[in-house]
Design brief:
- The chain is 46% helix and 12% strand.
- By secondary structure, the protein is an alpha+beta fold.
- Strand 1 (77-80) and strand 2 form a beta hairpin.
- It has helices at residues 2-9, 12-34, 37-54, 61-72, 98-107, and strands at 77-80, 89-92, 123-127, 144-148.
- The relative contact order is 0.11.
């Protein structure tokens, strides 16, 4: 509520952060399409800083510690996922230091959810309410679509 109120009242810090958050996905897409992971990491960092400008609860001592550990061991990019507050953080690492970053994160008491960039694109499927796969729109039955898109560490 505070972020929305600040934005609607024209609070400069919030408006600037929202402008950045609106632009970074376009730049990230461009970097991905060109295969420029150094630029993607920089964009992640810009996005992460803008998120932190929105509200003090986006980041906390634990997320700052995790970010510090990852950066010191070679993570190039960092982005707090969702609304922050301790859920998860995505790190972008080069193949030469992924294992070092993972090891340091685990040693600091955090859990690693490994994944990698998938160059095949977005994968979707449909299921019935019981979880069994169905062909979308088959026999007019209502199907639920689930989407998977993961990108955390390069290997």
């Amino acid at each position: 509520k505070k972020v929305i109120a600040d934005y609607e009242s024209g609070a400069v810090r919030t408006v600037r952060a929202m402008d950045i958050l609106r632009e970074t996905p376009l730049y990230a897409k461009s970097a991905l399409m060109r295969g420029d992971f150094v630029e993607l990491a920089e964009i992640m960092n810009v996005n992460n800083a803008a998120q932190k400008q929105l509200h003090s609860d986006i980041s906390n001592d634990k997320t700052e510690e995790l970010e510090d550990v990852a950066r010191k061991t070679g993570a190039m990019g960092c982005k707090i996922n969702g609304a922050g507050g301790g859920g998860s953080i995505t790190f972008l690492c080069g193949s030469e230091n992924t294992r070092n970053v993972e090891s340091a994160i685990k040693s600091a008491g955090f859990r690693v959810l490994p994944c990698r960039l998938d160059f095949r694109g977005l994968v979707t499927w449909a299921t019935n309410r019981d979880g069994r796969g169905v062909q979308p729109m088959r026999h007019g039955r209502k199907a639920y679509t689930k989407t998977i898109s993961l990108a955390t560490m390069l290997d």
